[in-house]
Amino acid sequence: MISLFLTDPVHGPQNVEVVDIRSRQLTLQWEPFGYAVTRCHSYNLTVHYQYVFNQQKFEAEELIQTSSHYTLRGLRPFMTIRLRLALSNPEGKMESEELVVQTEEDVPGPVPLESIQGGPFEEKIYIQWKPPNETNGIITLYEVREQIVVKE
């Protein structure tokens, strides 16, 4: 007769760090673990993450099928993201420490055309507009171009 005793994992993923951050993805790395930690041949590793965008909280989780690294894709630029890894077997779950990271900035979206207003004022032209709906970071400069149209 064979007895099989399953228990919770010994600990959650350790030495979790972000090794690459871009505007729309980030790559995690952690210390590999074996049976001595998982206490079971059948286990799952998931990443749980959350961020706030337009005053709405988004939460998601993804199943990780690699041994010691994972790239989380489809993120928004210039977002603060809270994440943790969870190691689970049929008997329980152990989590890593929480990481808080910020994705890189990216090119801003276009200025809404309907917001552009302006007109002549003495020897100047007055122009105003609203910022892009998706700033994707901190806007430090706008570039205004002129094009002279000659009517015949």
> Using DSSP, what is the number of strands?
10
Q: What's the overall geometry?
A: rod-shaped
Helix/strand structural class:
mainly beta
* Average pLDDT: 89
State the share of residues found in helices, binned by percent.
under 10%
From the alpha carbons, calculate the radius of gyration and give it in angstroms.
25 Å
Count of discrete alpha- or pi-helical segments spanning 4 or more residues: 1
| SSE series | EEHEEEEEEEE
Structure in a nutshell:
The chain has one helix and ten strands; from the N terminus they run ββαββββββββ.
Describe this structure in words.
The model has no long low-confidence stretch (mean pLDDT 89). The protein has 152 residues and is an all-beta fold. Strand 9 and strand 10 (124-128) form a beta hairpin. It contains one helix and ten strands. 3% of the residues lie in helices and 41% in strands. The protein has one helix at residues 35-38, and strands at residues 17-21, 25-29, 44-53, 56-64, 69-73, 80-89, 92-95, 99-102, 117-121, 124-128. Strands 3, 4, 6, 7 and 8 form a five-stranded antiparallel sheet that branches. The chain has a three-stranded antiparallel sheet with strand order 1-2-5, with no helix packed on it. A two-stranded antiparallel ribbon has the order 9-10.
Topology:
Elements: E1 17-21, E2 25-29, H1 35-38, E3 44-53, E4 56-64, E5 69-73, E6 80-89, E7 92-95, E8 99-102, E9 117-121, E10 124-128
Antiparallel strand pairs: 1-2, 2-5, 3-4, 3-6, 6-7, 6-8, 9-10
